Model the fold of this input.
Amino acid sequence: MTGNAGRPRWLRKAGNEWEWAYRYMHQSPDEKIQTRLRHVTRGKDPSYGMVADAIAYLQETRDGLEFVTRLRNALRQHRHRSLNAGKKRKPYSFTLPTDTKKALSIRAKKLEMTETALVADLLNGAGKLLEEHHKREQLLRDALDFERKRVKQLDDRWKTQHREAMRQIERQAILLSMWELTLGQADPGFEGDQATLQSDTKKKTREIEKAISNALKKHTLIEARLI
Done:
């Protein structure tokens, strides 16, 4: 095959890409591809032109075109990995104030390590501290959420007992109003046993006092939690 007709434009001469493509083609386990490669490269030394002509030749068949498509995709990934690897190897430099640079140098000598290693160690330590800080923040948020739920439960219980106390008071007020309206006087007098009167009165007021007392205790506890 002669001339440049059909040669792939995406295969670059720079960066030894043709060498990578040459190795990729000859590592293929496909016998048909290997047969065609031997045919098109017979008597030729490896070079950019030889690889480009081989790719053009392979593209003339469907199987060969599929192989070239895989080759092109693999080459694209190779370029991407090479670019990233180059970025990782590229050193990063920054300027420090004189006092900071001096302190860093003194500390590195005391620890018997390079300044670069010391900076890396400090950064790793800072990263761990930041991670621990985030964990503590999360624990505090969880504890706060739990306490808020607990306070809400106490508040709901206080409201329930408060409603019960008000229900008892309302009931006694209704009975008292009925008694006064029926007798037509606020204090009709009582000629019976005073001890019996006091005992009966205490029975009626004991539940009210208990409900109010419990409600006040719960309310005081909730206020203390919220301070």
Observations:
- The chain has two domains: 14-89, 141-226.
- The chain is about 75% helix and 0% strand.
